[in-house]
Design a protein that fits this description.
The protein is of the alpha+beta class and 342 residues long. The protein has twelve helices and nine strands. The longest helix is centred in the N-terminal third of the chain and has 37 residues.
Length: 342
């Protein structure tokens, strides 16, 4: 019995030393498991009761239980001390100086393409145009035939199209809304149409299979090419600056006649000639013209009574020229180092 008593006292002595030397709650828990766990020292001693003489077993059991109570009491007291110390240390670490200025939150910005669309449409709204939108999945009729571009027309070769089936496609331009708007309303019709368009282009510095256009249309009595030139010249000055010069060159589009392309003076060289404008001093920005009589007839308008003009511009190109961006892919890569500049 004396030997077992000595073992119990030795366990208690080691327990008190381990508890005192535990400086974290994790270390204290390790000590608790080592002493009182299923395989702990005190539990192991209790399992040796069968080797104690029967008449000494009650005394031995009481001694072990007393040792357990002593150890548990010391564990609880040490735990309270350690928990309080760790809480104080955590509060000190997480302390906030409320007198210091706060960190300004990072505020997002409007994407340069979205901003370009907003700025362009706002200019035309100030000139009395309404903003309308249309479907990106379009029919062959609205995308081509009603715009004086039947199946045999060579202009279709220029626009390699994504077809859904024989009569449904992803629109190659926002021009179909010319027909849709004229079908819905009586003249005057004065709208601009921003939106995504799709063509089978390889991705490079100046091309993308998905890009944005803004179509413009005005149909009324006595509309002339002079009205078109005045509208687009005003747009160029408002979007690029009052010093910007414009010129019109003859061109061909199936849905306008006569047709033209509009150039603006190069902002880089001021018209003297540089690499950006290919030494010409001018940069082409959009196509335009008077609405073709066949387009007016397709919607039931009388071309002898009504005239109009239309224009279409690529938003990416306009934005790139305005901000001096030399690679269209930058607008789609979502690189914050690039986007945060706008």
């Amino acid at each position: 019995m004396k030997e077992m008593n000595d073992k119990v006292e030795a366990v208690v002595e080691r327990a008190l030393s381990a508890i005192e030397n535990a400086h974290t709650t994790a270390a204290l828990e390790e000590a608790r498991v080592r002493l009182l766990g299923r395989k702990g020292e005190l539990t192991t001693l209790l399992r040796q009761m069968k080797s104690v003489d029967p008449e000494d077993r009650p005394k031995f059991g009481a001694l072990v239980n007393s040792a357990r109570e002593t150890i548990e009491k010391e564990l609880d007291e040490r735990a309270r001390v350690l928990v309080a110390a760790e809480k104080a240390a955590r509060l000190e670490l997480e302390r906030i100086d409320v007198t210091m200025p706060g960190r300004a939150p990072r505020i997002g910005k409007i994407h340069p393409l979205t901003r370009g669309i907003m700025d362009i449409t706002e200019i035309f709204v100030e000139m009395g145009f309404a903003v309308v939108e249309g479907p990106e999945v379009e029919t062959d009729y609205y995308n081509f035939e009603a715009l004086n571009t039947p199946q045999y027309h060579p202009a279709r070769d220029v626009q390699d199209t994504f077809y859904v089936n024989d009569t449904v496609l992803l629109r190659t331009q926002t021009s179909p809304m010319q027909v849709r708007e004229m079908e819905k309303r009586e003249p005057p019709v004065k709208v601009v149409v921003p939106g995504r368009v799709y063509r089978r282009d390889q991705v490079d510095a100046t091309h993308s299979p998905v890009f944005h256009q803004i179509e413009g249309l005005l149909v009324d009595h006595d509309i002339t090419f002079t009205d078109l030139k005045g509208t687009l010249a005003m747009f160029a000055r408002k979007f690029y600056g009052e010093e910007r010069k414009v010129r019109f060159r003859p061109h061909y589009f199936p849905f306008t006649e006569p047709s033209a392309e509009m150039d603006i003076s190069c902002a880089i060289c001021g018209g003297a000639g540089c690499r950006v404008c290919k030494q010409e001093g001018w940069i082409e920005v959009l196509g335009c013209g008077l609405v073709h009589p066949n387009v007016l007839r397709a919607v039931g308008y009388d071309p002898d009574e009504l005239t109009g003009y239309a224009f279409g511009m690529g938003v990416e190109r306009l934005v790139m020229l305005k901000h001096g961006i030399d690679d269209l892919r930058l607008l789609y890569e979502n690189d914050l180092r690039f986007l945060s500049q706008f």
